[in-house]
Design brief:
The protein is α+β, with helices and mostly antiparallel strands. It folds into two domains: about 170 residues, Alpha-Beta Plaits; about 120 residues, no CATH class. The chain has nine helices and 13 strands.
Length: about 325
Amino acid sequence: MKKLLLFTLLSAFAFTAFAQRNAKVEYWNTFHYKAKDGMEQKFLKAAAIKTKKFNSDPTNLIVTYRVTTGDKTGVYERIMPFQTSKSYDLDASKEAKYWEDNVSPYADPDGGKQVWERLKWADVNVNPNDPPYKHLSKTIFIVKPTHRNHFRRWVERIGKVFAKRMPDASRIVLRLQSGGQRNMYVSYIGYNMFENNPNTIFINAHLGWYGNDLDKLSEQLDNLSNVYTEIGAVIAELGRQPIRAKKFFLDHQDRVLFGKDTYKKSEYNVYFRILETDDEYFDYYRKRHAHWKMYGLNLPDSILKKLYYKNALTLFPSIPSDLFDVKN
C-alpha cells in the first residue's frame, strides 16, 4: 500500500538479512530516528536530499512520518514497503555510507530496524497505485500465541465495518518478523479526510495533537480552509511557549475554539491565567500532563472573545447569541 502518512520523504536502506525469508511474502522495513537537539530542520533537509538521490524507484520507496502522539512523540518513523526476499540480497552499501556521512550527524536511531510481513488478507480499501496519504494512524497489538486465530477473526470482522464506515481510508496489517517480539502486529490506517471533504467543516480537536509543533498546525490551517481547531486538554503545551503560542493565536484567531474535556472550576482558572495574563513560572494543575512551568500569553480582548464564543457562534449559529456579550 502506497497510501501512507507523508510529512517528509526521507531515506532508507536495507541490506541486513534475516532468517526464514519467504519468496511469496511481501516485507516492510521500519526504522525510527530522533533528531538531535536543535538539528531537526537539518535532519529533514539532509534526509530529503538523500531520498531524492537513492529512493526514487518503487522498489526502494521510503515514506516517513513524524509521530505526534504517544511515547514516541517527535520520533520519525521511516517505512520502506513492498520488499521481497531478494531485496535483502542487494548491495546497499553506497546508500548506507551516504546516510552515515550526511544524515546521521543530525539524528540518532531510536531502536533498531524491524522487518514486517504484510498480511494481505487484512487489506481494506487498498489501491497500490494511489498516492501517499497525508495522515496515518498506527496501532500496535501484542497477541498471545493461543489467541492468534481469535485475533485474525477480529481483524476480519472489524475490517468489514471499517470498509463501510471509512470508504475513503485504507488499512493494512503487518506481523513482525525480525527486530522484536514475533507476536507483535501493527495496523496502519491512512486517511485524507480533511482534504477529501472540502465542503465539510472539521474541528481538529486538541490542536490536532500538534501543540508541540505549532508550525505544522499553522501549515495545516493555511492549506485547509475547512479545518478549525480547539485547545481542550492541551493548554499546557501553549503555556510553555508563550511567544510562539501568542503568534499562533494572532495568525489564526478566526479558526481556534475554546475547549475543555472536563468541568472543574479550579482548572478553568489555570486556562484563563495562561490565556489572559502575562504571569510567569506558575504550576499547571495536573502533574501527569505537564511537569513544566506555565507562562501567560496575555492575549488581547479581541482575540479572547473570538476564542471564547465568537468563532463558535460562526460555526453554530443556532446557539443563542444573547448568552454572550455580542455587542462588543
